[in-house]
Amino acid sequence: MNNIAKQTVLIVDDQESIRVALSRMLSKEGYEVLLADEGEKALVVLREKKVNVMLSDLKMPKMDGLQLLKASKLVKPEVEVILITAHGTIEKAVGAMKDGAYDFITKPFKKIVIVNMIKKALEKQALVVENRNLHEQLAHSGQSGIIGQSDVMGDVIKLAEQVAPSQASVLIQGENGTGKESIASLIHRIGARSDKPFIKVSCAALPDTLLESELFGYEKGAFTGAVSQKEGRFELANEGTLFLDEIGEITPSIQVKLLRVLQEGEFERLGGTKVLRSNVRIISATNVNLENAIKQKRFREDLYYRLNVITMNMPPLRERREDIPLLISHFLKIYQEKNNKVVDGISEDVLDILTDYQWPGNVREIKNIIERAVVLTQDRIITQKDLPENISKKKAEERKLTIPFGMPLREIEKKIIIETLRRSKGDKEITANLLGITPRTIYRKMNSLEEDEKQEQEEDVNING
Ligand SMILES: Nc1ncnc2c1ncn2[C@@H]1O[C@H](COP(=O)(O)OP(=O)(O)OP(=O)(O)O)[C@@H](O)[C@H]1O
Ligand SMILES: [Mg+2]
After folding, report:
1. CA-to-CA distance for 201 and 205, rounded, in angstroms?
2. For residue 142, pLDDT beyond 60
3. What is the pLDDT of residue 133?
4. Residue 47 domain-assigned (yes or no)
5. Which of 74, 30, 76 is nearest to 54 (CA)?
6. Average pLDDT, stretch 62-84?
7. Which DSSP letter does residue 270 get?
8. Distance 163 CA to ligand 1 centre (A)
9. Facing residues of 202 across strands?
10. Which pLDDT band holds residue 113 (cuts at 50, 70, 90)?
11. Ligand in nearest proximity to the CA of 201
């Protein structure tokens, strides 16, 4: 495990001899080992330290392994838990699997068995997205360079395959980062003009005269600085495909000139008089709604119909969440190679977070986030800490409780008890374990809270009345 941050195993057992033996064994295997002699201390470690696997005795005097398991699933659900049982308690251990235990091991155990079990638990934690199934799907998508097995993406790719051989102009609509340019390039690559150039013009990036000279070229002396003649993109793309990106941004004067080339195939260079001809296939893209722009008289309807023989709509990522694991896997592969790093996968909670997220920046955003995570991670597994704060915060917040400064102690107690009960789905035993009090204390506190409330209400009535 050279060069890679160690994986951490937390050992929980009330018997010192077992703690020592396990600790020695696992340290030798290269694991970082943490120890706790009772459940309550284990929960503190779980809260404060990075733990990958928890190995806990089932039978312990105060909080037993089962209670610890349940509490740990609330504190750090991503930690895999292995329970150690004696012969008499196997049944209980089997039941624990339903509560989320990864596995159990019966005393006395062999070193090889426990080492393998920990290895497997770690693999499970890491390889959520790296399974064979995904690899096969990826290999399939690889040919088009467009990743996506969702029905909506399937339709997009099918349409691209249908329109590619034709000369029809295609208008690709979609939010930022949905893959408009990627699909345009795919249409060119599998189309009849694939051996001719694919030329891109970003219409939004340029002021009018510059855009005009980009599109149509200029003659020497056409303007100050035009020291020699230059070919425009229409000439460069001749017999190939011209990709007009962000077409919704072009001004009326460019719209007129564009319409002329599209209708007649003719244009002149800036400052020139010679009529030039170009045979290009036009693919354009926009993230603004052109029909609205037409209604607002910002975009010419006749140009719109020239550009829009075929419309393709790129679905936003939030409407095809089933593609998220595939995209993660794809970008992990790319950025591992690029950064010369080995990353096995992402943890289950990271996958949850990324699957829930709204993705305003679509595929480009997920791509950037995976690149960032691969660069930052010190483990072989990408975990929450490798995600940007705005993305991981929401989930992490769910495990935190905010207490405003100046809140009375009694209120704080009330808040934490109620919130812990809520998150443990009303389980008083788990709540007591997490809070380090007895279930009786919960009853007592809850009752006294109720009494307090009653009293407060009475006081309110007295004041009001
Ligand atoms: N389905 C996909 N599979 C793999 N990579 C994709 C996919 N869609 C987009 N990408 C990648 O995401 C990034 C953004 O895609 P692209 O530039 O095609 O989107 P766009 O819609 O043109 O974005 P913008 O509106 O910002 O111009 C690119 O790096 C592209 O390679
Ligand atoms: Mg684009």
Report:
1. 9
2. no
3. 46
4. yes
5. 76
6. 90
7. B
8. 20
9. 245
10. confident
11. 2
Helices (H), 190-222: 208-216
Rounded CA separation 310/163 (Å): 8
Residues 283 and 173 in one domain: yes
What whole-number distance in Å separates Cα of residue 368 and Cα of residue 327? 11
Task: Quote the CA–CA distance of 269 and 222 in Å, as a whole number.
Answer: 9
Do the strands 80-85 and 53-57 form a parallel or antiparallel pair, or are they unpaired?
parallel
pLDDT in tens, 266-317: 999 999 999 999 999 999 999 999 999 999 999 999 999 999 999 999 999 9
Structure token digits, residue 30: 């290269």
- Band the pLDDT of 130: cuts 50, 70, 90: very low
Q: In angstroms, what is the span from residue 157 Cα to ligand 2's centroid?
A: 17
Residue 317: per-residue pLDDT: 96
Torsion sign across C-alpha atoms 420, 424, 429, 434: negative
State yes or no: pLDDT of 327 exceeds 90. Answer: yes
202 C-alpha vs ligand 2 centroid, how far in Å?
8
Residues 82 and 53 in one domain: yes
Pocket of ligand 1 (CB under 6 A): 146-148, 174, 176-182, 287, 363-364, 367
Tell me the helix, strand and coil percentages in the chain, rounded to 5.
Answer: 55, 15, 35
Contact 410, 451 (CB under 8 A): no
Q: Is 311 helix (H, G, I), strand (E, B) or coil?
A: strand
How many domains does one find in the chain? 4
Last residue of one domain, picked from the residues 279, 313, 347:
313
**Tally of CB atoms within 10 A around 236:** 15
Provide the 3-class DSSP secondary structure of residue 106. strand
In the chain, % of residues over pLDDT 90: 55
Give the mutation target among 364, 365, 366, 371 for probing the ligand 1 site: most ligand atoms within 8 A of CB: 364
Q: Write the burial class of residue 453 (CB in 10 Å: 0-12 exposed, 13-18 middle, 19+ buried).
A: exposed
Whether 94 is in a domain gets the answer: yes
* Inter-residue contact 137 to 149 (CB < 8 Å): yes
Answer yes or no: do 266 and 340 share one domain.
no
More confident residue, 437 or 451: 437
Alpha carbon nearest to ligand 1 atom 13, residue: 364
Mutation to probe ligand 1, out of 181, 247, 370 (largest number of atoms < 8 A from CB) = 181
Quote the tokens at residue 32. 């970082």
Q: What is the pLDDT of residues 11-43, one digit of tens each?
A: 999 999 999 999 999 999 999 999 999 999 999
- What sections of 164-251 are H helices per DSSP? 180-189, 208-216, 233-236
E strands in 238-328: 241-245, 266-267, 276-277, 281-286, 310-313
| CA–CA gap between residue 200 and residue 204 (Å, rounded) | 12
Calculate how far, in angstroms, residue 304's C-alpha sits from the geometric centre of ligand 1. Answer: 24
Start-to-end Cα distance in the chain:
73
The answer to the question of residue 167 being in a domain is: yes
